[in-house]
Amino acid sequence: MTLDERAGRFPADLDENTNDMIALNPVFTRPGEASLLPKFRMPKGESLPETAYQIIHDEAMLDGNARLNLATFVGTWMDDHAARLFAESADKNMIDKDEYPATAAIEARCWQMLADLWHADDPENTIGTSTIGSSEACMLGGLALKRRWEARRRAEGKPTDRPNLILSSAVQVCWEKFCNYWDVEARYVPISEEHRVLDGHDLDKYVDENTIGVVAIMGVTYTGMYEPVAQIAAALDKIQADTGLDVKIHVDGASGAMIAPFCQPDLEWDFRVDRVASINTSGHKYGLVYPGIGWIVWRDREALPEQMIFYVSYLGGNMPTLALNFSRPGSQVLLQYYMFLRLGWEGYRRVQQNSLDIAQYLAGKIAEFDAFELWNDGADIPVFAWRMRPGHTDNWNLYHLSDRLRQKGWLVPAYPMPDNLPDVTVQRIVVRNGLSFDLANSLVEDIRTEVEFLDGLTSPMPGAGQGPHFHH
């Protein structure tokens, strides 16, 4: 039987290359249904819901196991009650605040809770919003810095055509996008062996009258290390004393803003530092919610330019809205509120501390290997990285180890460090809620097995096709 014959009622000009077709298992084919469906064109006819479900379900099985993905910061597990809440609220459009006033009110409660958690002087006088994730939140934070700088420059009768933003060379790619999209010069301070994060060193060489702000990262993507916000602020204090330039800080707390308040409560990085104008975090990272939720909060309403705020009808009044995205599900906002209520401060502390304990346990085990030396030990957020010990071997590298671990289901990325450290390749583990001590021990044993295999090689592994793995 030809493909056209099997395709039943579908057009006769379908490509007979089976790569362009989805072949149904005869077990799932119902009478009258085609047994072949096109992959890249919408089918002419209908399928039963059971058939469509089975096709997608089977194809998605080829994805990796999310629980074993140690490359991503994004949450991969929630409990059954959260799943129920997710299903009940996925049809609510977050932007329709007048139609879904309860969800809108819960959104406002969440960012006010975060303002309080981050030591805002007057949480009720702050302003914030939910977003799709930290990338959107960072765009808003950067844009607010730019708008405030522009307003100040115009008031002084000065040009506004050359704004710049100061960042670590290890910054997340969303900041590169911000600078590109909003015509801001990115001034990258390179990390090095001596300065492994942006720490205020030589900051005066980058700041000038066109600087809209400095980004400080609480949990650098490459390694998980904190950038010392108070130390950066002190360097900016000195610059202001010397030059009069008043430069504010946006804290990218995608991960650390939901770790530090619970596990390092005495660390001053948030609104306790006067130069911090705004903070973002990812609810879907260590906020412990499924993908699709971020948050940003400004110190006070004066920190957010009024021109960025739009107002919508809400219970006979007006409610501010300022996200870049428009229509999106309200479910993740409700899930964030669920986690805040379910865990509370003490619950978050226990969950986050458990992840930190496992990260530091794993880091200690990795440090025992002769082949490796730690870059950091997971003492900040539950993330750490290591590199090959110089001179250990010429027969294999961390890319080979990553590929070997992938064969066992583990996703442990290897990638080069940025700018001044391009010859340094590291491997990184992100510990999230769901990686237990038992799984951690299984990972250590798998690493041990693969390192022993690689160390037993008598000639070099092939290097063709090697490249960085996804690590953002």
TrEMBL record:
The keyword Nucleotide-binding is annotated on this UniProt entry: no
EC assignment: 4.1.1.15
InterPro entries given in the database record: Glutamate_decarboxylase, PyrdxlP-dep_de-COase, PyrdxlP-dep_Trfase, PyrdxlP-dep_Trfase_major
Name assigned to this protein: Glutamate decarboxylase
Keywords: Decarboxylase, Lyase, Pyridoxal phosphate
Family of this protein: Belongs to the group II decarboxylase family.
Gene source species: Rhodococcus zopfii
Cofactor: pyridoxal 5'-phosphate
Catalyzed reaction equations: L-glutamate + H(+) = 4-aminobutanoate + CO2
Source superkingdom: Bacteria
Keyword rRNA-binding: no
Catalytic class of the enzyme: lyase
Pfam families assigned: Pyridoxal_deC
UniProt-recorded Gene Ontology molecular function terms: glutamate decarboxylase activity
